[in-house]
Design brief:
Keywords: ATP-binding, Nucleotide-binding, Transport
Number of strands: 20
Strand order of the largest sheet: 6-7-8-3-9-10
Radius of gyration: 25 Å
InterPro entries: AAA+_ATPase, ABC_SmlMolc_Importer, ABC_transporter-like_ATP-bd, ABC_transporter-like_CS, Mo/tungstate-bd_C_term_dom, P-loop_NTPase, Transp-assoc_OB_typ2
Pfam family, one: TOBE_2
Distance between the termini: 38 Å
Number of domains: 2
CATH topology of the largest domain: Rossmann fold
Bound molecules: adenosine-5'-triphosphate, magnesium ion
Structural class: alpha+beta
Protein name: Spermidine/putrescine ABC transporter ATP-binding protein
CATH architecture of the largest domain: 3-Layer(aba) Sandwich
Helix content: 10-25%
Order of helices and strands: EEEHEEEHHHEHEHEEHHEEEEEEEEEE
CATH superfamily of the largest domain: P-loop containing nucleotide triphosphate hydrolases
GO molecular function, one term: ABC-type transporter activity
Number of helices: 8
Length: about 350
């Protein structure tokens, strides 16, 4: 187990920018995720940690050990590649044992370690099968076993679930988390799937265009997005532009494009949002925080016309037109009559659920 530090790491490919100024400290035993859309620099960053790329600038440490220019096989990291990169002509056992062979571990000990790992990833009995005789999920577990058997300090997983169907993804997600907790191993996980990142991680680094946007716990990233990109990439949200018309103590009054004045709280502002009268501000309001209001007037009660109503059994979801804006809401079904398209609806936006960002 080891902590991982990236100290102002940059990677350029010729003149093209790969990643820029990644500066993070990952704790020993942490489950840390790189999240972002295709091409944002997740794999590049992971490959620098594994040693397959060297940074153009900056340095990398495992614990207090500088590893910036150490080759991959001397880093003691286990990596699962996106396409697994298994050896198709070898058996399951041979695939898993490969890393031990390279490290010249004695045959008897290697056999013991491979069998223990096969048990851990629930592949006991599959040792003699060839890779092409396995399902996608089984192949995924072989790749995981191959990375784990060398007892790495750090486990690196690059979109390991991307080739699996929905049900298998969920099962394997649980499996990876179980293994990580059982072994207490520092794990760096790459995905572009925000729900995967949210459900598995201790902390998440959100990236876009080679740059880090935000690092935080799933709760922080969800509730306190630092900008429009993070707010919209993580879950569903309503993004409303507004102008601050007054700040009174803790309360911030904002006029929306449709002339409605909403009250929010200063404490819910990201560091880059400018909270002062006259400033423009972006508000992020999560659909699940908005409730149908039973009163016609009051603080943050907005009136609109239902554009779309969706009943899922457990929930009632509305898209409501409020002046020039549209507002998505999502509430638990309490058995009230469901509004139809075109009907007037009143919605209450709790002031503590408005987040100000830049
Ligand atoms: N070997 C390379 N040579 C040149 N450019 C590269 C190389 N590897 C990556 N890049 C570029 O660096 C950027 C980041 O790529 P990277 O593979 O890290 O993205 P990613 O976030 O892993 O995307 P995906 O989700 O599609 O796997 C991209 O613009 C990519 O084209
Ligand atoms: Mg990638």
């Amino acid at each position: 187990m080891s902590s991982v530090t990236l100290d102002h790491v940059h990677k350029r490919f010729g003149t093209a920018k790969g990643v820029e100024d990644v500066h993070i400290h990952i704790e020993s035993g942490e489950f840390f995720t790189f999240l972002g859309p295709s091409g944002c620099g997740k794999t590049t960053t992971l490959r620098m940690i594994a040693g397959f790329y060297y940074p153009t600038e900056g340095s990398i440490r495992f614990g207090s050990q500088e590893v910036t220019a150490v080759p991959p096989h001397k880093r003691n990291t286990g990596m699962v590649f996106q396409n697994y990169a298994l050896f198709p002509h070898m058996t399951v056992f041979e695939n898993i044992a490969f890393g031990l062979q390279v490290r010249r571990v004695a045959k008897g000990e290697a056999k013991e370690r491979v069998e223990r790992i096969m048990d851990l990833v629930r592949l006991t009995g599959y040792g003699e099968r060839r890779i092409d005789q396995l399902s996608g999920g089984q192949q995924q577990r072989v790749a995981l076993a191959r990375a784990l058997v060398i007892e790495p300090q750090i486990l690196l997983l690059d979109e390991p679930l991307s080739n699996l169907d929905a049900k298998l993804r969920e099962e394997t997600r649980f499996e990876i988390k179980r293994l990580q907790l059982e072994l207490g191993i520092t794990t760096i996980y790459v995905t572009h799937d925000q729900s995967e990142a949210m459900s598995m991680s201790d902390r998440i680094m959100v990236m876009q265009g080679g740059e880090v946007q935000q690092v935080g716990t799933p709760h922080e990233i969800y509730h306190f997005p630092v900008n429009r990109f993070v707010a919209s990439f993580i879950g569903e949200t309503n993004l409303w532009n507004g102008t601050i018309v007054g700040v009174e103590g803790d309360e911030v009054k904002v006029r929306t494009a449709s002339g409605q004045v909403l009250t929010g709280l200063r404490q819910n502002a990201s560091p880059k949002a400018r909270i002062a009268a006259g400033e423009s501000v972006l508000m992020s309001i999560r659909p699940e925080s908005i409730q149908e209001s039973l009163v016609t007037e009051g603080e943050n009660v907005v009136t609109g016309s239902v554009e779309m109503a969706e009943f899922t059994g457990a929930c009632v979801n509305y898209v409501t037109r409020v002046g020039e804006e549209s507002l998505r809401s999502m509430s638990i079904n309490l058995g009230r009559p469901i509004k139809q398209r075109g009907e007037t609806i009143r919605l209450q936006i709790p002031k503590e659920s408005i987040y100000f960002t830049e």
